[in-house]
Amino acid sequence: MKKRAVDERLALTKFEVYSEPHIILRRDKCRGCSLKICLSSCPAGLYTLDESGETKFSYEGCLECGTCRIVCPENAIEWNYPPGGFGVQYRFG
Amino acid sequence: MSEKYDVIVIGAGPAGLSTAYFLADKEYNVIVLERGLEPGSKNVFGGRIYSYVLDKYFPEWRTDAPIERWVRREKLSILCEENSVNLEYQINRKPNGYDSFTAFLSRFLKWFASKVEEKNVTLATSVRVDEILFRDGQAYGVRVGEEKLEADYIVVAEGANTLLLEKHGLREKISPKDIAVGIKEVIKLGKEKINERFGLEDEEGSAYFLISPKFGGGFIYTMEEYVSIGVIYRPLFNNNVEAKDVIEELKMHPSIFNLVKDGVEIEYSADIIREAGYRDVMLKPYGRGYLVVGDAAGLTLNTGFTVRGVDLAIESGRLAAEAIQKTSVGEEPSIYMKLLLEGGIIDTLKKFRKVSKILSNQKIYTDYPEIICEIFSKIYTIEEYPETLFESIKKVVGRKTSIIRFMFELLSMVRSL
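^ Those are the sequences you sent over. The predicted structure of the assembly is below.
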């Protein structure tokens, strides 16, 4: 058993990916934030910094835990669940 | 979906299904709306359910519920840098009903949903409720996309992420310091390896409560063929490890590695846990036309050693069903609060009200475990000129804090638990 990167681990979980993101990052609000606690607290590691230092987010591997929505100090994350039947589908939850 | 129902339940988790079950018993026309493909598709928990609540309401459950193993080993494990300090409670005689079993919540909810459907409750999956409909302060239905569905009562069982309640101003967004993220991985090991490594017989299970200075709290539950291993991650702690990596860190600890090595990882999951306890209970978990149950209402409990989610969720659902029966349509189901108080849920939460403060104190996971690790390492490492136990304690504790302060903190901790 070796250390796995989070992407490898996410590949184990079943997703029904919807065509549009269920989480939208409000860049204007996000930009002024120095804390960026979303980067370290997303268990799927979906928040990353791009080359210009701005936060980006990919929704496909979202575990729908809701942590980012609660920890974001700027309320910069517009968070909803994916439409019915889409998103993560746990078999061993 | 144009029919009018007596009750619409939002969410097919333990609390929502329970409400539906007990209402259907009394001939109510109930529909449960679940956003997952199947009941249980969106639910995550650690791995244990307490039996008493099922014994009370589902006498036949032991014959057909998806029970993985009966918990007979309770272990508290402090993970030191390399070594670990363990305390084990062995349950050798079968307890009289007050036992617990390990399970996968996803599977358990499928079983529970089948019991609910036997009672002619309609269960609609892949349905996300977008809005609760109110008219003059009275909830009268829900909106799903363009469709509207009406009922006399709406039961909100949306879980720990209270999106709908917040949308309608019925609950404030929880503070980040009051949440933890439960991050879990399920590993397939096979029955023999599990029995051998955890010291179990067939059908016997173990529940580990882990404490680590590196990443806080954690757990291991043994299933029949699998092991569920997880971390209770607190985003606001001064963490050394990012949330996405904590599971790997945990598995790489020598004491844990030996338990799960050459297993096959099969699923990775996460969910938030509301950790504020009594403070988090909704002051008014009802209004005209609606009631709030389970996690959404803050009606679940972490006592520090045991986590009581499913059993209390089922209880609150049952009481919501009873409140609906005892209320005339159009009036406030205020009797719900009275039932919660009489049923003991709120008193139990109140009793453990100081626990959340302890669990949110990072020292619990760092200073104290480190002190314990060092003391044990000193006791069992034989040097030419050994120290007495008292000398060791004095030295180790003295480096972190004063002895008196340590004793004082320890005492106040014990009294809160």
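The mean pLDDT of chain A is 94. The radius of gyration of chain A is 14 Å.

Shout if you want it in another format.
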